[in-house]
């Protein structure tokens, strides 16, 4: 039996509500497959913990997390704690500390009724955005000079190392080759005359090793336009930390909203645990109401299963997500249904059990 140890950080707002539904899926798989087992340990870290202890996680939190095979995160952020603290002292701390330099964000239309784009179908919107996840504009480098004075100056420095830029671009080329898809780079070399010119140069250099991969390169403003007008242009996309953050939110908007947006923070070498999360945020306006959409959190389960090498189960969970979209009465209000978060989770598990032999 293969046993996988998972650290749960439900976090803030709706995080605990949706993570609980993802755990249900893991436990259902255990019942259906006696060759795998999942263990869980929950950590109370997040904004409430910060308000009580003055820190987002334990001092030795990273050491505690090292022992796990993966981290399952619910959400980070809540009113009363500045966003730059909640983000940097938990989410980014884990991403950088565990060298989770690959961020995988699928932008996949599950059903044509979910997109606001006219005449677009599932074939038109099916891409994987690979976002650099460890440096770039989120490196936290800069300076705040003459604070509070008339001559106040703020410098925010984007960090693009040869190592960091080359490894994410190479990862994207390898993924495009493996899946026989095109690769598009998104940058802004006409305005950012150091960082993005360097990015474009590395994209071209690495590309010489992959002559079989068809490539495109767009400025980020043009790419944002094409995400909406012609999403079928994109199959595999690679971009920087900041641009990836922005265009994947556009991706969520054209595929059904943030309730279906998931992301994986990967350390490909598996030197450290990787982290999987729905990326809809803590949604404090609906926290505690029982109406949060858990499907993004369950999609994160699918990504984690793939990472564990349980690709068949990953596919089955994803296939069940596609199937449940057809059962509107069993969806949360954001997708037109009237079901609660818990009811969606329960129905999903029942559907997964019924369709376990489905050819995927």
List the helices and strands and how they pair.
Elements (H helix, E strand, L loop, with lengths): L1 E10 L3 H18 L3 E7 L4 H7 L7 H5 L4 E6 L7 H15 L4 E7 L17 E7 L3 E10 L7 E7 L2 H18 L3 E5 L7 H13 L7 E5 H10 L6 E4 L1 H13 L8 E5 L7 E5 L16 H13 L3 H14 L16 H14 L6
Parallel strand pairs: 1-2, 1-3, 3-12, 5-10, 8-9, 8-10
Antiparallel strand pairs: 4-5, 4-11, 6-7, 11-12
Summarize the structure.
With 360 residues, this protein is an alpha/beta fold.
What does this structure look like?
There is one protein chain. The protein is α/β, with parallel strands linked by helices and 360 residues long. It is built from 11 helices and 12 strands. The protein has 2 domains: 1-101 and 267-360, Isopropylmalate Dehydrogenase; 113-255, Isopropylmalate Dehydrogenase. The protein is globular, with a radius of gyration of 20 Å. The two termini are 24 Å apart.
């Amino acid at each position: 039996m293969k046993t996988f140890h998972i650290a749960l950080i439900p976090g803030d707002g709706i995080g605990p509500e949706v993570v609980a539904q993802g755990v249900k899926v893991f436990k259902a798989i255990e019942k259906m497959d006696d060759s795998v087992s999942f263990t869980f340990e929950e950590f109370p870290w997040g904004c409430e913990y910060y308000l009580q202890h003055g820190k987002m996680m334990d001092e030795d939190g990273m050491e505690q997390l090292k022992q796990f095979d993966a981290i399952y995160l619910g959400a980070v952020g809540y009113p009363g704690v500045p966003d730059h603290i909640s983000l940097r002292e938990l989410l980014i701390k884990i991403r950088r500390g565990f060298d989770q330099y690959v961020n995988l964000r699928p932008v996949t239309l599950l059903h044509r009724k979910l997109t606001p784009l006219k005449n677009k179908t599932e074939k038109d919107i099916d891409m994987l955005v690979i976002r650099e996840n460890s440096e770039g504009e989120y490196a936290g480098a800069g300076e705040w000079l003459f604070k509070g004075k008339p001559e106040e100056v703020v410098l925010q420095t984007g960090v693009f190392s040869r190592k960091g830029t080359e490894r994410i671009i190479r990862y994207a080329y390898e993924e495009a080759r493996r899946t026989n898809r095109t690769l598009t780079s998104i940058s802004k070399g006409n305005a950012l005359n150091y960082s993005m010119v360097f990015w474009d140069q590395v994209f071209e250099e690495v590309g010489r090793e992959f002559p079989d991969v068809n490539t495109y390169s767009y400025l980020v403003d043009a790419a944002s336009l094409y995400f909406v007008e012609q999403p079928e242009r994109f199959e595999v996309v690679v971009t920087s930390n900041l641009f990836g953050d922005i265009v994947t939110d556009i991706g969520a908007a054209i595929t059904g909203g943030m309730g279906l947006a998931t992301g994986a923070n990967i350390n490909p070498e598996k030197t450290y645990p990787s982290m999987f999360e729905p990326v809809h945020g803590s949604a404090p306006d609906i926290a505690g109401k029982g109406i949060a959409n858990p499907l993004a959190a369950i999609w994160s389960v699918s990504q984690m299963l793939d990472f564990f090498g349980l690709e068949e189960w990953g596919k089955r969970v994803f296939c069940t997500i596609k199937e449940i979209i057809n059962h509107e009465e069993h969806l949360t209000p954001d997708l037109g249904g009237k079901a609660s978060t818990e009811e969606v989770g329960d129905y999903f598990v029942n559907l997964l059990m019924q369709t376990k032999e489905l050819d995927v």
